[in-house]
Amino acid sequence: MNTGPLHFVRLYTTRSRAIGRGQNLADRYVRLENALREKQALRTNIDSLRDESIHQQETQAAAPKKGNTFRGLIVPEKPAEPASDECCMSGCAICVYDLYEESLDAYKEKVTALRNQLTTMAVPATEWPESIRGEEKKPAKSPMLNALEELERKIAEKQKQSASS
């Protein structure tokens, strides 16, 4: 037999415990039903907003911008050079200057194709948009781009040396 102190079971009569024990189930059902309806309404709103944004993106992508066509042909826009604060100069695998160079090459290819089409259509070069007229002298690469490429070469050499040793 246990001769230690007796433990009495305390009946919880405080207000906080009483709320959790006995509830009107009809009220609880109404609260749950309202919560489910609100969640369904939110889902419906989210779905409709998603559909609207997809529709807007499709219409923007499908319709060419005004002023970007010449004689029914789309005139490509020259890509913007990245700002100096967009590059971290750490030799990333995917650098903004590399991406810029790729987009610039794609732009040049599109301009060449457009020039060829205009030539076959017998459109005089004087009527062409200024952005695609004859080859002007090529501007040299920016000093920043040259410095970045040099840094990337040095980093690659260091990595090769550390891998070989």
From TrEMBL:
Name of the featured protein: Oxidoreductase-like domain-containing protein
InterPro entries in UniProt: Oxidoreductase-like_N (IPR019180), OXLD1 (IPR039251)
Gene Ontology cellular component annotations, sorted alphabetically: mitochondrion
Pfam family, one: Oxidored-like
Coiled coil (residue ranges): none
Taxonomic path: Eukaryota, Fungi, Dikarya, Basidiomycota, Agaricomycotina
Domain of life: Eukaryota
All copies of domain Oxidoreductase-like, residue ranges: 69-114
